């Protein structure tokens, strides 16, 4: 690290020029990168996806999309009976509104289930072709316009469905990536201004801007090699903002500390690289490990978020360890003005806080673990799936149309019908058998091209309720089980079938992902901390913290204790299937950042001759304000992310925000100091036979007498 610092400072003008070119390239290419991202959540090789693709190839629509529900409500005093032809013309017009639409209604099924009980409203299922482009807008407007143009005099038309409800009838996309990033940057600048109290507060923002644009440049070639989820652009911009600022904050704070100790500027940069730069490298690798573990999942969009997400810490580490020292080595002292805050002593507040925790370590440890255990108990009741229709919209035309259908006795399962692909000559018997499955409200089979093409037919199964989560897909499992035993059935597709496939493909492989992350992280941290116990504690605390975070998400979103007050969104009834994994992958690494920052400094103080308790107090006294500020900056970035479109993005953002705050407070400021103090000399034990393959020096605790606790730590025997 010293040689690297010397190289960067010596060639600082070239380094700054290089990153200037990257900045320009990023500005020019970011839009192209965003345009190549996709919204495809399919699961290749899984039964539901295979069937969905067969349906799409044969019928040109449906399969892996939930249909629009188009309603026609007759004026007061009139009923659908006697106006069937008028209603039929509306749905025929809808079918021609956009190429590829497939309409299932009473006219082509002969089933009066497409009417409400009061006979005033008729509806149709409108299946469409999935478009993976994130710029693809909903078809609500052309479908509604076609229906309105053909509707009978005095009637009203409506368009609803899962996608329409999720958008609230507005698919404008919120403030956009740039707007959200600027929101996060403004909040971060306020925190940095408080931390540095000088113009130096602008430096981490400059580094973050370069890092974000560099990530978009690196992401572009990846979009040509594989499909990359559109969610990655939000993660790159906002998590990239927080991570890059955190790393730069750590580096600059250490540089100021060394300057305040009397070192000249050149030596201060070098020492900051040796100390803080070392922690940044380990933190970046830890974050990357958590994200790259997603590639073991047989799900393309999750893999793409793993690949794309791993570029975030890579770019952040590169810019922090090159651009930051290059700028500090040149104009750092001039920019650090007016210097109202100094770093030549540990924070008095954090020293007093940590000393109190160390004195009452048993109370702190037991209390914190009890609180986390309560949240973990809540997490055990999690439902994995999609948000219920009740939480997607509480007003607007789509909500009104759904409310009309529900009042008329139409089951909400119409929002998530199953499409059973069968051989054409078996459609009748299959439909009759599936109609008797428990939890099925109705089964329809359209005549003509809407339900029969190329010797194959689609039998549409409507369940009693929405099949949107792990607790409501029982009827889908029963339909699949019965279908497997019926001749002529090709397969079952639909939202419910996709939920089952995802639960099997992703959560079935989760133990492997967890094992890979835990083992790699343990080895990495054993090398960083030169300890057997500290990395084990770090991994276990991270897992406990993550489970507690998911418990908070269940309370806030699934049960709705907070989501309605903050976002105006009712209880979702479930956590979207991919979000817990993304929260886990990101938070495992991000929260480990703080573990590395704190324990690296505690290790440094212990190696300087302090007792374990004194090292803990001094280490957190030096890093407490840093970690708190870094966590607050990340939290503000996630708050900006929560302003994005859709409930899913808000759920992900709040989950990440909960995790960062919980980890930086309860875990790092209560559990870490109390447990390290309790473990005493055992923290520093790394025998020679373990140190040798790790290529580090062995570690044994030195004799210590802790005046604060009044007892001498018992030293483990040397191997």
TrEMBL record:
Predominant subcellular localization, coarse grouping: membrane
Compartment list: Cell membrane
Recorded topology in the membrane: Multi-pass membrane protein
Entries under SUPFAM superfamilies matching the protein: Multidrug efflux transporter AcrB transmembrane domain
Segments passing through the bilayer: 182-200, 205-224, 230-253, 279-301, 307-331, 362-382, 506-526, 538-559, 565-590, 626-646, 666-686
Presence of keyword Membrane: yes
InterPro entries (UniProt xref): MMPL_dom (IPR004869), Mycobact_MmpL (IPR050545), SSD (IPR000731)
Sorted UniProt keywords: Cell membrane, Membrane, Transmembrane, Transmembrane helix
Top-rank taxon, per record: Bacteria
PROSITE patterns: SSD
Nucleotide-binding keyword on record: no
Alphabetized Pfam families for the sequence: MMPL
Disordered: annotated span: 700-719
Protein's UniProt name: MMPL family transporter
Source species taxonomy: Bacteria, Bacillati, Actinomycetota, Actinomycetes, Kitasatosporales
């Amino acid at each position: 690290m010293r040689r690297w610092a010397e190289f960067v400072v010596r060639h600082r003008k070239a380094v700054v020029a290089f990153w200037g070119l990257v900045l320009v390239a990023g500005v020019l290419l970011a839009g192209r990168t965003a345009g190549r991202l996709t919204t495809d959540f399919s699961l290749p090789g899984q039964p539901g996806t295979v069937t969905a693709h067969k349906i799409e190839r044969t019928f040109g629509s449906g399969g892996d999309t939930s249909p629009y529900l188009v309603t026609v409500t007759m004026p007061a005093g009139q009923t659908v009976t006697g106006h069937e032809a008028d209603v039929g013309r509306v749905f025929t017009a809808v079918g021609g509104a956009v190429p590829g639409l497939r309409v299932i209604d009473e006219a082509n099924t002969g089933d009066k289930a497409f009417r409400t009980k009061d006979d005033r409203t008729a509806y149709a299922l409108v299946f469409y072709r999935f478009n993976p482009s994130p710029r693809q807008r909903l078809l609500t407007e052309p479908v509604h316009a076609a229906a309105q143009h053909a509707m009978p005099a005095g009637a009203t038309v409506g368009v609803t469905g899962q996608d329409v409800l999720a958008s609230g009838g507005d698919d404008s996309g919120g403030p956009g990536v740039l707007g959200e990033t600027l929101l996060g940057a403004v909040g971060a600048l306020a925190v940095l201004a408080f931390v540095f109290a000088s113009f130096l507060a602008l430096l981490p923002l400059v580094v973050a801007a370069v890092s974000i644009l560099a990530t978009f440049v690196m992401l572009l070639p990846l979009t040509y090699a594989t499909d990359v989820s559109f969610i990655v652009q939000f993660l790159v911009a906002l998590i990239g903002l927080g991570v890059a600022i955190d790393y730069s904050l750590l580096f600059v704070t250490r540089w100021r500390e060394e300057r305040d100790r009397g070192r000249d500027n050149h030596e201060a940069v070098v020492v900051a690289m040796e100390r803080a730069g070392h922690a940044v490298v380990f933190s970046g690798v830890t974050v990357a490990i958590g994200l790259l573990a997603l590639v073991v999942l047989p799900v393309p969009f999750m893999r793409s978020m793993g690949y794309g997400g791993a570029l975030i810490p890579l770019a952040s580490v590169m810019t922090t360890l090159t651009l930051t020292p290059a700028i500090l080595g040149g104009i750092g002292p001039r920019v650090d003005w007016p210097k109202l805050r100094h770093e030549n002593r540990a924070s008095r507040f954090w020293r007093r806080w940590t000393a109190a925790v160390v004195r009452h370590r048993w109370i702190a440890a037991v209390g914190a673990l009890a609180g986390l255990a309560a949240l973990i108990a809540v997490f055990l009741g999690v439902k994995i799936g999609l948000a219920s229709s009740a939480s997607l919209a509480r007003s607007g035309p789509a909500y009104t149309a759904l409310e009309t259908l529900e009042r008329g006795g139409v089951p909400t399962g119409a929002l998530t019908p199953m499409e059973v692909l069968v051989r054409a000559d078996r459609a009748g018997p299959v439909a009759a058998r599936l109609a008797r499955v428990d939890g099925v409200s109705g089964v329809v089979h359209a005549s003509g091209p809407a339900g029969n093409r190329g010797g194959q037919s689609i039998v549409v199964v409507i369940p009693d309720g929405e099949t949107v989560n792990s607790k409501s897909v029982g009827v889908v499992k029963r339909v699949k089980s019965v279908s497997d035993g019926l001749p002529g059935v090709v397969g079952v597709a639909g939202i419910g079938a996709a939920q089952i496939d995802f639960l099997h493909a992703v959560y079935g492989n989760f133990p492997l992902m967890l094992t890979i992350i835990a083992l790699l992280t343990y080895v990495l941290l054993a090398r960083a901390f030169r300890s057997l116990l500290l990395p084990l504690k770090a991994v276990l605390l991270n897992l406990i913290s993550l489970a507690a975070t998911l418990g908070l998400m269940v309370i806030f979103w699934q049960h709705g204790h907070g989501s309605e007050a903050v976002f105006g969104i009712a209880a979702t009834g479930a956590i979207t299937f991919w979000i817990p994994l993304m929260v886990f992958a990101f938070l495992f690494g991000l929260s480990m950042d703080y573990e590395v920052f704190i324990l690296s400094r505690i290790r440094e103080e212990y190696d300087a001759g302090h007792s374990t308790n004194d090292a803990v107090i001094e280490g957190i006294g030096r890093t407490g304000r840093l970690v708190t500020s870094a966590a607050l900056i990340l939290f503000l970035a996630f708050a900006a992310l929560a302003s994005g479109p859709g409930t899913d993005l808000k759920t992900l953002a709040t989950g990440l925000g909960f995790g960062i705050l919980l980890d930086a407070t309860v875990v790092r400021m209560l559990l870490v100091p109390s447990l390290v103090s309790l473990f005493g000399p055992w923290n520093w034990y790394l025998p020679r036979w373990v140190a040798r393959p790790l290529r580090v020096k062995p570690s044994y605790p030195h004799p210590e007498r802790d005046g604060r606790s009044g007892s001498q730590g018992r030293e483990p025997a040397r191997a």
